[in-house]
Amino acid sequence: MKNSDLLLAANTLWVVVAAVLVMFMQAGFAFLEAGLTRMKNAAHIAGKNVLIFGVCSLVYWAVGFGIAFGDGNKVIGTHGFIPSVDSLLSVGKAPYSFFTTIPGAAGYFFEVVFAGVSLAIVWGAMAERAKLWVYFVFGAAFTVIYSITSHWVWGGGWLFGLGMQDFAGSTVVHYQGALAALAGALLLGPRIGKFDGGRGNAIPGHNIPYAVLGTLILWFGWFGFNPGSTLSVVTGHRIGFFAYVALTTNLAAAAGAVSGAITAWLVLRKPDISMMLNGVLAALVAVTAASGFVAPWAAVVIGLVAGVIAVVGVLAVERIGIDDPIGAVAVHGVSGVWGTVATGLFAVPALAATLNTGRGGFVYTGSLHQVWIQLLGLAAVGAFTFSASFGCLWTMKRLWGIRVEEETETAGLDVSEHGMWGYPEFYIPVPGGYGTEAHGHLLGHGHAHRPQAPVIPEAEPEAA
């Protein structure tokens, strides 16, 4: 076996392992979103992550991968739809000439899990009130929208040619998903009771430990997300460059955790755990663009600022009347903007040369050239994604409606949409469990839910 064959095998193994880590992030989103929403919607919120990844995988296989990374022009890929066996097994050949270090199949697997993450972000701001069928239709539409901008930035498109630096997707994955989430939140409107009385009313999540677990899973998965974007065990002439990317990723996340907790303490007078978690995620989002381009100290700065953005951004979004249950707009959108701009500020010239993308940032060169390229990319991706997403969802709303009925929302999407509960023992008698009095809600019928906490029977007094 030649050295080139060994390198190809190592590259393929690394990229597939990284893709598996990114796919596991869906479990993180399921725990995070279920924990930060109400128990009557927990099963629905968690289960839709399975559904949307299925929809995304099929659409991306049929058309998305070809649009994003198929050979074509500066705007869109025009080849590689429903890929053949030969195209998936070849390396650096049409229709996927972009992938020169791994086979097309490894490229598909790695990129489809990225599309799945971006789609998972969309539903955060639409949680607890969107109809189930919206996940099918808009999930397919957004996968196509995502694929077009992926081509612009990563797949040899016009922003790629200009040298936009978005190493693993602060713009392509996170900012884009947040813009679609914003469009959905605006068209759906707030949850019942969220802004009664003219102010934002707290609707707390039902399980903060779930949210903590989800955040830790996402942090873990990010070590596939960012380092895997090297697509090789050798980057330029640097062997194992992916380890450096893992280091900058972790430093930013750590800084975001500390910054988010302290900011929440100062602003809210308590170190709110959910805000600390948002600080971690916002930092990871921000460093996603920068992780291959910046020095460790800059990764810490990016994370510290992102932690502040997470807290202030979530509060600001609520203050202007937008109901975003998971904080997707601030955590993925505003932090995505910060991370993209910060890359243009802090990119190390030598690392930009290693990655053969763009040039050094303002701090090193004194030039704002890279910053302007970053801002242009944000404007172009933002305008296209928001307008396309809003237009698609608006059309769906006018034709069929995208929000559940008030009675359905009040009862909870678990029973109304699926005929089951995430926590059945709180609603119906369960043999051998802490059953409560039946309230007549089976399959969504009857009055509104009156969930009751389980009652622990008192111990019998011991005989004298």
Describe the model.
This protein is mainly alpha-helical. It folds into 2 domains: 3-399, Orthogonal Bundle (Ammonium transporter fold); 406-444, no CATH class. The protein is 63% helix and 1% strand. It has a two-stranded antiparallel sheet with strand order 1-2. Helix 5 runs antiparallel to helix 7 (170-188). The protein is globular and about 65 Å long.
Overall pLDDT metric: 92
How many domain units? 2
Largest sheet: spatial strand order: 1-2
CATH superfamily of the largest domain: Ammonium transporter AmtB like domains
The CATH class label of the largest domain is: Mainly Alpha
Strand content: under 5%
* Rg over CA atoms: 23 Å
Secondary-structure-derived class? mainly alpha
Helix content: 55-70%
Number of helical elements = 17
Q: What's the number of extended β-strand segments?
A: 2
Euclidean distance between termini CA atoms: 82 Å
- Proper CATH architecture of the largest domain: Orthogonal Bundle
Report the principal-axis shape: globular
Task: Write the element-wise H/E pattern from the N-terminal end onward.
Answer: HHHHHHHHEEHHHHHHHHH
The low-pLDDT segments are 435-457
Largest sheet: 2 strands, antiparallel
CATH topology of the largest domain: Ammonium transporter fold
